[in-house]
Specification:
- By secondary structure, the chain is an alpha/beta fold.
- It has three domains: about 325 residues, Rossmann fold, CATH 3.40.50; about 160 residues, no CATH class; about 60 residues, no CATH class.
- The protein has 25 helices and 16 strands.
- The strands form four sheets. The protein has a seven-stranded mixed β-sheet, with helices on both faces. A four-stranded antiparallel β-sheet has the order 2-1-6-7, covered by helices on one side.
- Helix 4 links the parallel strand 8 and strand 9.
- Helix 9 runs antiparallel to helix 15, helix 11 runs antiparallel to helix 12 and helix 22 crosses helix 23.
Length: about 650
Amino acid sequence: MELVYLWVDKYKNIIDGKFSFSPEIDYVDGKLRIKDVESFIPKDFFGTDVNVSAIIGKNGSGKSGLIESLMLTLFGAKKPEATLKAFCIFKEKEQYFCYLTPTWDGDDREQFLLNNKDFFIKDNSQSDIKLLEYDVSKIMMLHYNFTLDTLSSTFNTTVMNSDYDGNIYDYETTPPEINIFSQPDKLQSNININKLNRASQKYMIKSKSIINERTLKKLLIDVFGENTNASFIPNEFLLYFDFNNYISSFKTPRIRKSLQKYFEKEDMKNPKNFNIGLITKLVNFFLIFRLYESFYNMNVMNTYIKLEKLRKLLQNIRKLDETYRQTKDQNNSTEGESQEFDKIYLDDRIFRLINLTLPEDSVFNDILDPNTNIKTLFPDIYDTACFIDYIQGKGNKFRKLDIALFTQKSYIDTSLVEELIKNLPSFIEIEFWNDTSVKFGDLSYGEKILNSFFYNLFYFYDFYQDKNFTEFKIILDELEIGLHPEWQKRFLSLLVNMGKVLTNQYPSTKIHFILASHSAFLLSDIPRQNIIFLDRNDDGICKVVDGLNDKKETFGANIHTLLSDGFFMDEGLMGVFAKEKIEEVVSYLNSNDKNIELYKKAEKLISFIGEPILKMRLEEMLSRYKIKNNIETEADIQRRIDALQLQLLEKQNGKN
């Protein structure tokens, strides 16, 4: 089912928004009509069951509002109370279907259906237009935006009020089963980079079992070529302890300082001293100190911590801490005495207590209460507790952690690595290498974005098609940011090929890529009929414009031609800073100012200019200005001296 039209009553700067994903539909005075269009895009232009649309517009024109309104409209299929007033038109086999959001009241709804009965019903013997209303609950929307931009408060409030938890970082559970998912999750206007990386690592490993590795590698190589890291497929892995991340996780400067001293004292960064016992000790330290930082109120502590021995330990540490502060304040110690005091009270007392703690029992069975919301409120404590159970081999689902995983690269066992990713705390990292020994962490930003997106898409497509979603709207919000122009040129080809792979692997599904972009490189791969061009009027209201200013065709167009159109560059192709500098030079050359220093600056700037015709014209102006004002630079004087010396030498040689 092809999405061909979206109408939005009011959302952000959109008022009576009419958006054609196909040029054939128009909506005027409450009535839908089919326009006379000279040429439609051929069926299956991008491949069987694959379609591509683009939303192009300047900053502030309404791209984000259009994306959010589309997602909210289709989100209403699962949550009727969470929609704005809008409708979508879909098409299949020359027949049009309609979806109106539940916010249309009874009278408006009936009037709309009555006004457009002829549009939907071709056979006059049919009278029930409701038979042609489309069930959009089968549509799954995946939204990708790796910028720091967040979805609007209106969108957040609407979605947050539903049962959608939106937590893509919660990589221990499956994604929610409603029809919208955003990557990365920004509903809290917060991006946890470590959790995001963990999620991407999980999808990378899961995808190895979802799609044939040879197919994936061939797909990427076909588009990007043999010699590229874009076809990264993990082959080996290694665990490592991130000491800096470990220390910076604590809010209290005193604790960070104490841990730093302890690490140096025990020489923990020395690989020879690294063993499972040390890891266990460090993890125990982390759990104790984070619990200490988090639970100052005894009633709160009693809610989350079941083990009486642990509660007493935290109370004892707090008493030591209070004694430490009071005694230090009373002594007014010198810097040397203060350092010695720190050593006695911190390195000795606190760490001696911690070394005597945490029995070798399951943390969640005997220490923490898993029935509380500790996972949501204190995720780092929850993750650390999971890992303690993991390295102690508690429960049938856990296996003993092998120290060899920290000391030498191991070939990837999918089930083992999935289990590791699920249980590793933030301060233990996992790194991947491909079969050519390229490390994932060494890839560029653009390479990481591409790989993360592809593996995410494979994973979620597989997950959601199993939940009876048959249509996928993949919304790519400025995903080309970070990609070199050469890769931007290739990006759509890769998307289309990926769509073909996915729809071939899952024959009952269809995929529609919707790109919001500023890139002329992407535009040259998409026919004008599949592009929504946005601008805004003098009041800042979003408006749809009829293509480029010169109404050029976009598909196969020269990228320079697209960029030169006023829709993209209404003030020319030159950078504004360069233009201002050149205008200063022109202003000087048109004046009677004989300042020799300004002349030198103008001469130097003209030598930098890369546009040959402009440079030649300015050089001509500079020459005329020089003659007019009889300006002589040091270089001119030196040239006259050299010429006179040459003449003198020639006369002397003539006499001889």
